[in-house]
Amino acid sequence: MSPIFHLALRNLSVVAATQIGRRSHTSQRVKHKGRSAVTSAVEALEQRCLMSVAYTTSWVGNTSGLPEGHIMNNITDMAVTPDGKVVGATTWDEGGTNAAVFQNGAMIGRGLETGTGSWGRMSNGIVATDANYFYLSIRQDGGYGGIPAGQSQQEIKRYNYDGTPAGFPGGVQYDSSCLNVVTAADAGNKPVVGLATANNELYAADSYSNTIKVYQLPLSGQSVKRSWSITRPGRLDADSAGYIWMLQPADTSNPARLIRYSPTGVVQAQQIILPSAIVPGDFSVDLVNNRILVTNLGVDQNVIIYSNITTAPAQSGTFGDTGGIFSGTPGLWAPLKFNRPSGIGVDNAGNIYVGNDGGGTVLEAYNSVGTRQWVLQGQMFVDAPDVTPGAETELYSAKGHFVLDYSKTAPGSEWSYKGQTLNPFKYPDDPRANWSLNTVFTRVINGKTFLYMTGMYGEPISVYRFNSTTDGEVAIPTAMFGAN
């Protein structure tokens, strides 16, 4: 989320800079009074300038401008309840929304104490749901919560759907809301990478021990009911028979695949080996239609559908435009043009929910025939966007293009998202795909728009141009300057 700066304020800054420059000629005469004399003069000038210009405060890039409704800046996993509650999670949100609950286009719960480093607590960005609660994979570092310094504890934290922690008998941490999956000096980078509920049980894919651990629901105490060994643990979900599916990541020798286990850990004949063109981000079991939906982070940027999953799984279709946001006019945003679809879920009414995080969060809901029902956006991280000189309704962030309508007066209503300016498939060496570039300077030279970008440390400086005929909304990497 970033503030809007109207043309009047841009011009104000130029006037203020000019006046400040004039003041600097007198600075030699006030040196004997100390630096505070010049500082006070500048501040007084700024106040007089601001008082002479009518302005309003608003924001760009986030559906909500308030902390309690702030949409996370990325979405790494999703879980959807039968009645259409969507739980989304991320590993780090600058606004503190590392896990939240959405329904019918609104946030209905924002997870408290979900991470972002507070008290040594970090979200792992993995969630699951049941009828009463949602569960978040979380890491607690030592020095807090009774954990010795130098140790890390991988936990599963239980929440009510309003976002408040839900304690249980024998739970750990200050609010008794957590399961302790493992505590060890080397557990910090080995989180719970998959969660699912079925059969009144909670299943956790533990990457520290390479096991799936099973806990009785409702939670009580810390005991593991049973467990079984796995290779390359990944995300979990359960089918209508109560069997557990795991998305096993690819490695250098093996493709990614979906493996089906019985509730006691017996590998079943039903498996789905994913072709190399499919780079899986997330998957979800459609309990009503007996199918699995897999998001594809590869060049197709869509959702792959497999049917007959409890008997003989086979690909039966796709959802979304092939090529995603780079299909048709590259970068131009429209329904069904997904942008790094990293989360997926289906409710019992057949609605499909897709969480995109290619340029920031775009959470979309579609009905069973593919008509978009609602969308929520958290498009920026810590961006400092800029409007285009001579075209003050066009605003660019590090990865996005927004259009401003100053005739709208409700705060946060002025902006609309037009497109994604980063294409990592066509331009894999784009600095934005490899560094955190957040500050944008938009310039028009000989009638052509250029973007200059830098990061929070001042370098590198990257330059971008546009060619709407060949690249649509995409900003083309042109030059880069930096010490390294």
Rounded radius of gyration (Å): 25 Å
Largest sheet: 4 strands, antiparallel
Strand order of the largest sheet: 1-2-3-4
Mean pLDDT: 91
Strand content: 35-45%
Percent in helix? under 10%
Tags for this model:
single chain; 484 residues; mainly beta; 4-stranded antiparallel β-sheet; 3 helices
Structure described in brief:
The chain has 484 residues and is mostly beta strands.
Task: Write up what this structure looks like.
- This protein is mainly beta and 484 residues long.
- It is built from three helices and 32 strands.
- The chain has helices spanning 7-24, 35-51, 468-471; strands spanning 77-80, 86-89, 99-103, 106-110, 121-129, 133-141, 152-160, 178-184, 192-198, 201-206, 211-216, 226-229, 236-238, 244-248, 257-261, 267-273, 280-286, 291-296, 303-307, 314-319, 341-346, 352-356, 361-366, 372-378, 386-388, 391-396, 400-404, 415-420, 439-445, 448-454, 461-466, 475-481.
- Strands 1-2-3-4 form a four-stranded antiparallel sheet, with no helix packed on it. The chain has a four-stranded antiparallel sheet with strand order 5-6-7-8, with no helix packed on it. The chain has a four-stranded antiparallel sheet with strand order 9-10-11-12, with no helix packed on it.
- Helix 1 runs antiparallel to helix 2 (35-51).
- The two termini are 30 Å apart.
- Mean pLDDT is 91; it is low at 4-34.
